[in-house]
Write a structure and sequence with these properties.
mainly alpha
């Protein structure tokens, strides 16, 4: 009985955290299905008198003149850029982090990359703009992927390096004695053991690219490469702003990260179990 009483503060704290996260999303959803009259009614009513899902229909429609034409194109751009930047950053961060972890004396390069990550993004606006201009990569997916790699790569390198430090090196040394080379040890021994943190790192890196607004606003000029945050900001630029439509866009924009997080959660659990059995 005493043990159950001691657990009450933990459950209350967990409930408070859950409410702080879910309450804004619930309110956003209620706004998206409320009519303009319900949203402007004084005093404000929490539940709409008539549930209206027409905004979602408009956002998934490719009919000319509908907001879905912009939204779906921007959604595809964000998916391409976020996935591409995360994949490239992981391919570079994994060998870099493994090298920093297994070969001491290179911490200066690691701290230098972390220091670059700490610099405000506005400091790199002009250099990156001139580079992209010379390479004809302004307003392109590839240009944004390269820019986002500069944000994601230092973060992933530091995160993976800390995880590689915790892995036992006895298995790697035994594999080296058996004749395996650097890349073989990394691919066959280290990465399977680090599979849980790889999923977490990929998720955090993907979220950094998915939510980025500043560079996407500066380096894209039209819908050909504009990402979802920039397009959402464009919906608020008109004189007659539909708050319910913006709320619906926010709900749909949160679905890809949510689905990816659920998918990676399963892979993290399985990876953790397999890693423990291999150890």
């Amino acid at each position: 009985m005493k043990r159950k009483i001691r657990l009450i503060p933990r459950y209350l704290a967990a409930l408070l955290v859950a409410l702080s996260i879910l309450t804004p999303m619930i309110w956003l959803f209620l706004m998206s299905v409320s009519s303009t009259a319900d949203l402007t009614r004084i005093p404000l009513e929490w539940l709409p008198r008539q549930w209206d899902f027409s905004r979602y229909v408009r956002l998934v429609s490719l009919a000319p003149g509908q907001p879905g034409e912009l939204f779906l194109h921007a959604l595809l751009n964000s998916l391409l850029v976020a996935c591409g930047a995360t994949l490239v950053s992981l391919m570079l961060a994994i060998p870099a982090a493994f090298s920093f972890s297994r070969y001491p004396g290179r911490d200066g390069w690691l701290f230098a990359s972390l220091a670059i990550y700490m610099v405000p993004p506005v400091a790199f606006v002009l250099p990156l703009y001139f580079v992209l201009q010379q390479l004809n990569l302004l307003n392109t997916h590839l240009g944004l992927i390269l820019v986002y790699c500069s944000l994601i790569l230092p973060f992933l390198t530091w995160m993976l390096k800390n995880q590689f430090d915790t892995l036992p090196q006895d298995i790697e040394q035994a594999a080296r004695l058996d004749g395996l080379r650097f890349w073989q040890v990394l691919l066959r021994i280290t990465l399977p053991l680090a599979k849980p943190v790889l999923g977490a790192s990929a998720l955090f890196g993907w979220l950094l690219a998915w939510d980025e607004f500043f560079y996407a606003l500066l380096y894209t000029s039209n819908i050909e490469a504009q990402t979802l945050p920039v397009t959402i900001a464009g919906f608020t630029a008109g004189r007659a702003t539909d708050d319910g439509l913006i709320a619906a866009v926010g709900i749909l924009a949160s679905l890809p990260p949510l689905l990816i997080a659920i998918w990676l959660q399963k892979s993290l659990v399985s990876g953790l179990a397999s890693g423990g059995s291999k150890g």
